[in-house]
Specification:
By secondary structure, this protein is α/β, with parallel strands linked by helices. 42% of the residues lie in helices and 19% in strands. Helix 9 (221-232) links the parallel strand 12 (210-213) and strand 13 (242-244). Helix 11 (268-274) runs antiparallel to helix 14.
Length: 370
């Protein structure tokens, strides 16, 4: 049911071109995964998401567990049927969300926290997170890990990876749908090279079908992000997919592709869209600015998305000023399409053996000075 094939390696970098077969379709990598936390991308229908070129989307275990609950989703025929998305889905284990909560209590078994609505105490551990994801029915599910803050001491991070490794073993033992769900492990260890590599080594020994690097979207910045990927990615199996969690901005993704990562997710495209910030090949623009009031060009003349082919910056400026819901929809369509077009260009460049030229040209036109 699951097979990852490495199709090409770039001649100028560590970038990889791959293909991941899943029960709900093929994923061409490198790929960006739009985030539908509650089982929906904000302001977009599934058909609109598919039209952007999306091959896989991400939903969140923690939020779906709280509402509507995994039992209801399972009764509906699983997450694919529930949200009418026919392509692959990945569910995060909820570790990042749980560990960002106030007043949580962590022990060796998992995390205790309060329900955000009724205040009831809830426990989430590796067995529970795996069971919930088994019921939700996503194609790719994630092991429950401890996501530590930045900065963290070496001693704290060292104790944390011991917990993450124990929990990974428990997730493997608890996983009861290996025939149609791939369980990915998550490498933790903060910004410490020795801990990242040790965590990766032990997880690779457990033989998961895919591996993620977690804990790199907690405020460490691009320079540290690049370093973490540089000394972690080479320790992951070449014949299995590599997923960088929660990343990020275009420059983050392109630099991480350069360093051998395959899969990415982030809420940035849709979140920025709702605040009138749109990505273009020449950099970000804020459509609520007055200078767009009489600008009848599309958001990006180089873009083929539904928004750019049919509407002007002046119209979107008007929609945002009028507080029309359509402003968020059109902007989200554009931003998600922008990200997916960017990684499609990366795939083509890797096949042609000129990825670094593509990255440098893209970021140069975009106006990023790294």
């Amino acid at each position: 049911m699951f097979e990852f094939t490495l199709l090409a390696k770039d001649k100028t970098s560590d970038a990889r071109r791959g293909r991941l077969e899943t029960p709900h379709g093929t994923i061409e990598t490198p790929i960006f995964m739009p985030v539908g936390t509650h089982g929906a991308l904000k302001a977009m229908t599934p058909a609109q998401v598919e039209d952007t070129g999306a091959q896989i989307i991400l939903s969140n275990t923690y939020h779906l567990h709280l509402k509507p609950g995994e039992a209801l989703v399972e009764k509906a025929g699983g997450l694919h049927n529930f949200m009418n998305w026919k392509k692959p889905i990945l569910t995060d284990s909820g570790g990042f969300q749980v560990f960002s909560l106030p007043k949580k209590r962590i022990d060796d078994h998992g995390v205790y926290f309060r329900h955000e609505v009724n205040g009831e105490e809830i426990f989430l551990g590796p067995k529970e997170a795996t069971s919930i994801q088994n019921q939700l029915g996503a194609d790719i599910i994630m092991a429950f890990d401890e996501c530590i803050p930045h900065p963290a001491t070496h001693d704290y991070a060292a104790q944390s990876i011991k917990k993450t490794l124990r929990w990974a073993e428990q997730c493997l033992k608890s996983h009861n749908r290996s025939e149609d769900q791939a369980l990915f492990a998550i490498v933790q260890g903060g910004v410490y090279e020795d801990l990242r590599q040790e965590c990766a080594r032990q997880l690779v020994d457990m033989d998961f079908p895919g591996y993620a690097i977690g804990g790199v979207s907690v405020g460490e910045g691009l320079d540290l992000l690049k370093k973490v990927v540089e000394y972690t990615a080479p320790k992951l199996p070449e014949n299995k997919p590599r997923y960088l969690m929660g990343v990020g901005l275009p420059e983050d993704i392109l630099e991480s592709i350069d360093r051998g990562m395959d899969m990415f997710d982030c809420v940035i495209p849709t979140r920025y869209a709702r605040s009138a910030t749109l990505f273009t090949s020449r950099g970000k623009i804020r459509l609520t600015n007055r200078n767009f009031r009489r600008d009848f060009y599309p958001v990006d003349r180089a873009c083929s998305c539904y928004c750019c082919q049919n509407f002007s910056r002046a119209y979107l400026h008007h929609l945002f000023n009028a507080n029309e819901i359509l402003s968020a929809t059109l902007s989200a369509i554009h931003n998600v399409h922008f990200y997916l077009d960017m990684v499609a260009g990366a795939r083509k460049a890797i096949e042609q053996g000129c990825y670094r030229d593509y990255k440098n040209d893209f970021l140069g036109a975009y106006g990023f000075e790294g």
